[in-house]
Amino acid sequence: VSMLGRAVAACLLVTMAYPCVDGFSVSAAYAFPPHLTLKAHHSHPDSHLSRNNPSLLSKQLFASAPLSKSCVPLQSARSRSCVLGMSSSEGVPKPVKAEGTKQEEQIDLKEIGSYFGGTLAEVAIICAVMFAMQYGLTFLPPLVSQVVVGLFFLGMSVKSRIFAIFDASRPMEKEKTMDKVYTEVKRPAWSPPGIVFPIVWSSIGLLRAASSFLVWEACGRELLVVPIIAMMVHLSIGDTWNYVNNQQQRQGTAVAGVSFVWMSAVAVTALYYQALPLAGKLLAPSVVWLSVASCLIFSIWRLNGSQPILPRKAAAA
User: Fold this and answer.
1) Considering the entire predicted model, what is its pTM?
2) What sign does the CA torsion over 243, 246, 247, 250 have?
3) Which of 33-42, 107-116, 280-289 shows the highest mean pLDDT?
């Protein structure tokens, strides 16, 4: 009985001390085969030493006993490395990095920064021009000043892109671009015909010029006031959007950009209304048209494959 107790104790010690033996786990389910008895222990040449040494006894038992079928192979990387004769670090497979896919999906932060930088630069140029004009108007008669300012607002409403950092030309100015925009690109059934766009935009330009002139009069004939500067920001955002949509043909980024155009139009209309209600009412149709245009741009984006919203870097060769 004492020998049997020692054998059980040795098995428990081995279970804790030897978690991996020839690639198999030693668990509570491990059992010695029926033919292994204490007789095998007495027949061992070092049995007289192992009686008082449970650790040596366990090693002798495992050396003389074949592994039973109840042994379950370990599924861990350590057991596999034991079987293959490798270290644990060598036995763990290393995942393969999909570098090409990561590069293809990388957002072009530099391009996004250029959009904001170009827009701010255009605003700064326009503000510098207005500052110079404000100084020059002090030397002109009031009637001449009104004519100069009126022509300035009309020019800014129609051709503000002359101060743009990017190529903000519209598609109707380039025949090839116009053909691609109005022929190749899929458009919703409710889309207005191409001839409508220049007519609407020309009308909106006149309303912008008239409302801006009224605000200039209401603000003491000052150009560098918040409502007028906000209008110049709105026009600069629109020029950047024309570059993204018409020149770069980035439909996804155009969807994000048109939201900035719409929000700036709403802000300018509110500021104009605070300065002079009539000016805000004259500018309100531009918000309505931009709302329709935003829905149209979103629909075109959905019909033509839903390109990424943010610009992506070109895939590495």
Assistant:
1) 0.64
2) positive
3) 280-289
